[in-house]
Amino acid sequence: MLNLNKTLKYLKIATQLLLITIKKSFILPLHNLWIRKVHKDICNGSNNTYFLIVNHMGDTFVTLSILENSRKYRMLQDNVIPIIFEGYKDLMTYFPFLSKKFLTWKNERFFLMNSRNLSDFNGFILNSSRYNLYIGILEKVRYKNLILIGYKYKYFKTFIKHIVNTNNISYARFDNYLKFILGVPFDIPTKLEFQRNQINTEKALAFMREHNLKIGKTVILAPYSNSVPSSKEEENLKMFERIAKLLDLKGYTVCTNVDRKNSEPIKGTIPISPSLDILIDLAELCGYVVAFRSGFTDIVANSSAKLFVYYPKVYIFPQISFYHYCSLSYIFDNPDVLEIEGDRNKFVQIIDNVL
């Protein structure tokens, strides 16, 4: 019996090694060939139609911003169509060009399990590691002018290699990664030329009245980041509690942005959960935002609100810190954003000095 268990164990290991070998020898090279082909087609202004899957609130907003401005400056035609999470549909109010033609998805398993049932699509799925890598290879192509790509496909290392080889390490930012994939110049702006929509402004004003928020004297706290688990660590939450007490003593109305995943407001603050289409208006009307770096901050960085953002001291790649890759002041060309990396006491002190 013991020998049988050993044999089964070794057989399992051998099978895993065989699968890894097959993946490296056949599946990955084929996948990378298709990635290069798609990237070349996009850069060459192909007549193909590309459906671009985007996920996560901040990633979605930044991607849509780049697409919108690329369309506006005629760097891309209308053949790149975003597919966004249905819950982020309200973001389209900020993107007049893209809002004319976009799709939504309800859950990630849809693309993994039912891609053949997508009525407008019979092409290749080139996607991120969160989806099975080989699914794109197995899809049958009926209409070659329809290609579905995922913005997080295996292109990051190629991007970093390009940046390092050209001695442009300062360009290693999330927005430039997306521009690199889409084949548009790095100098295409990410920041929106935001024009207030009267309907949304009225909605934001009504929201403020409903929650007793004072115009120009309210601070929105945004302590949570769904993509950075450390935001929920006790030390970080205590930092926001200190900030809330400090601002309350200074006479500010203090509220906390909460959602379904993060429903607890910072102690002594007003919980708010505004719809995405009024976030920029709301931030401007309130006047101030104090936040842990998150998708929420990508949106409000396009407002005229005074923004304070805390970044954890972590590295996502050798030589490239989380701050370097995700800095709002660089991504949105907004030097007025006050950003602190890894020093909680300094972050609190700056807020105390400025407000």
From TrEMBL:
It comes from the Bacteria. This is ADP-heptose:LPS heptosyltransferase-like protein. It comes from Pseudothermotoga lettingae (strain ATCC BAA-301 / DSM 14385 / NBRC 107922 / TMO). The lineage of its organism: Bacteria, Thermotogati, Thermotogota, Thermotogae, Thermotogales.
